[in-house]
Amino acid sequence: MEKVVVIHRSHWEAEEADNAYYRSLTPEQRLDILLELTRPDEAQPRLERVYRIVELSQS
């Protein structure tokens, strides 16, 4: 997938450009993008959850 940077003047303009781009794609191209984004072998590793139990001192 080729990465392209485009600068827009407003959020509305950026949203409209995104919508126009995805409308221009065929259903097969949209599906290819979905499959590329959800492919498990290229997923970033997640952070491990760490829990710490702290004893409160009685004073």
Description:
By secondary structure, the chain is mainly alpha-helical. It has a domain at 11-41. Helix content is 42%, strand content 0%. The chain is built from 2 helices and no strands. The mean pLDDT is 87.
Principal-axes geometry comes out as elongated
Order of helices and strands: HH
Determine the N-to-C terminus distance: 61 Å
In round numbers, the mean pLDDT is 87
Largest beta sheet, briefly? none
Q: What share of residues is helical?
A: 40-55%
Describe the structure concisely.
The protein has a domain at 11-41.
Question: Which features would summarize this protein structure in a list?
Answer:
0% strand; 59 residues; mainly alpha
Give the SSE layout.
Elements: H1 11-24, H2 27-37
